[in-house]
Design brief:
By secondary structure, the protein is an alpha/beta fold. It contains 23 helices and 12 strands. Helix 1 links the parallel strand 1 and strand 2. 33% of the residues are buried.
């Protein structure tokens, strides 16, 4: 926030500029001017939100400056300083919207408190204006307000409206990936530093951005601008989830509702292109053919795979079908969901025929089986139904050591090599490309203990080997084996070894 001090007396200008802790009041820049005309030029160039001005100055007095700065130069708060306690001046100043009228000599504390209040009021006004602005933009995108109104909201500067020749719109949407996605846009909403795109509003469950196109280079380069925006947004999420984006073609500012629809239509192609995609309307071709993939699903081969406990064969069959949906550029969420339901029903039918307790299996793996079957890409649905079927087939026979040897072996090897690092269930699940809920289920089924119990066993086993070395320091052993809390290390050690680390060392001696 900027403040301008306009006074023809140098000692007053400098005294106010250096005598107040502006940063503590929320002021980023302090500008000065020695008369009204210079102050007017500074306002044109810098657009200060707060003006502190003498009422009597050469060239242009404080009241004239107040009138002009408030009408067309964006000044939101004005404080008048004067050696004259004349009622007419005060009356005229109040009529121009002046915040306060202080008599010289100025009381620094009084002025500081007044500036602090002005800054707080401006921030609150900007917050309310921002909400109102976004509400209006949402209504325009929803065609509840005339599209022409967008010109006033975005481009009116004083009495002028300076629109770019063309714009493009991007719609950013959170991906619902299997095993990894976040709720809400709190981490990514708003303008992105370094990007020339402008954040407009959140509408229809997406974040709406706009790129201005004023030059020939920008006509051909706005795709790259939006791709850079998406990369920046996904960096903000830091691996906790991802976003995809649909990008419209070019159009006039008043075409913004139609451009928004184009961006959303482009975003629908995420279904077969995959999460994290930046999709351009000009490149996307909507598949007009209604898909019923469950009608073509080879139930006979699926039944054979289930009856023979050929999980790899069932996975291959599922993968082939999802690959065909991608080839057909399927954007229909219901088609993916219907295919998953069909596959589940084939497995259920075989299990019922063999008298398997389906309810018991579902109850013992509730976290996976009760998860919502709502993903934003075919990859998500494919991964979910494959893991779902894997766990169901465990009810047909004890497959310990057969089905998941590759997955669990990779996880165990990692834990044995990196036990001294911070390892969590979620981070290790990502290492083996599984969701945390699914990985937790299969880990316990194969290893006989849960993830945390096994990790502690590995760490304590290595700690015991270190404690056999001469001149060992116990708290250093704790750190090296992944225990950052010494008391917790001692507790786990005693639980697994039957004695404390100190007693273990003494016994080995």
């Amino acid at each position: 926030m900027k403040v301008l001090i306009a006074d023809d007396e140098m000692h007053i200008r400098n005294g106010l500029r250096t005598g107040i802790d502006w940063e503590s009041l929320g002021i980023d820049m302090v500008l000065t001017a020695e008369d009204g005309r210079e102050a007017h030029l500074v306002c044109q160039r810098e657009r200060p939100e707060i003006i502190i001005t003498d009422i009597r100055m050469p060239g242009m007095d404080g009241l004239e400056l107040t009138g002009q700065a408030g009408r067309s130069l964006g000044a939101k708060k004005v404080i008048i300083l004067s050696g004259y306690s004349e009622f007419e001046y005060a009356k005229k100043a109040i009529g121009l919207g002046v915040v306060d009228y202080l008599l010289k000599p100025v009381n620094i504390r009084e002025l500081s408190e007044l500036v602090e209040k002005c800054a707080a009021d401006i921030r609150e006004e900007e917050r309310r204006e921002g909400l109102t602005r976004q509400e209006k933009i949402r209504d325009i995108l929803d065609k509840k307000l005339p599209a022409e109104e967008i010109r006033n909201i975005l481009y009116r500067k004083g009495g002028e409206i300076l629109c770019p020749p063309e714009i493009a719109v991007g719609a950013v949407s959170l991906d619902k990936s299997y095993g990894r996605y976040i709720q809400g846009y709190e981490k990514v909403r708003g303008d992105v530093p370094g990007s020339r795109t402008v954040y407009l509003a959140e509408a229809d469950e997406v974040l709406v951005y706009m790129a201005e196109i004023r030059t020939r280079e920008e006509r051909s380069g706005y795709y790259a601008e939006f791709a850079g925006l998406l990369n920046a947004v996904n960096r903000k999420l830091a691996g906790m989830g991802s976003c995809s984006m649909g990008v419209s073609g070019r159009g006039a500012v008043t075409d913004i509702p139609q451009l928004f629809e184009q961006a959303k239509k482009a975003l629908a192609h995420r279904m077969y292109l995959g999460d994290g995609s930046c999709i351009y309307f000009d490149m996307a071709r909507l598949n007009q053919e209604k898909m019923y993939p469950f009608l073509q699903f080879d139930r006979r081969r699926a039944r054979e795979s289930v009856e023979m406990l050929r999980i790899d064969q069932l996975r291959e069959l599922i993968s082939v079908h999802f690959d065909e949906m991608k080839r057909m550029k399927c954007t229909d969420v219901k088609a993916a969901q219907e295919l998953c339901v069909t596959i589940k029903n084939v497995v259920f039918d075989v299990m019922r025929e063999k008298g398997v307790d389906i309810a018991g299996i579902l109850d013992s793996n509730q976290e996976l089986f009760q998860s919502q079957m709502e993903y934003t890409s075919l990859d998500g649905y494919e991964a979910w139904i494959c893991d779902y079927c894997d766990l169901l087939l465990r009810g047909l026979k004890d497959l310990r050591g057969k089905c998941y040897s590759a997955v669990i072996s990779k996880a165990v090897d990692y834990m044995n090599q990196h036990y001294g690092e911070d390892i969590t269930l979620k981070s290790l699940a990502e290492k083996v490309n599984k969701s945390a809920s699914y990985f937790s289920c299969i880990f316990k089924k194969e290893m006989g203990v849960n993830f945390n119990e096994y990790l502690n066993q590995v760490r304590i086993k290595n700690a015991m080997e270190m404690l056999r070395l001469p001149d060992v320091v116990i708290y250093e052993v704790a750190e090296k084996t992944g225990f950052h809390d010494y008391k917790y290390f001692t507790k786990v050690f005693r639980k697994l070894c039957g004695c404390s680390p100190t007693e273990y060392i003494n016994h080995k001696k």
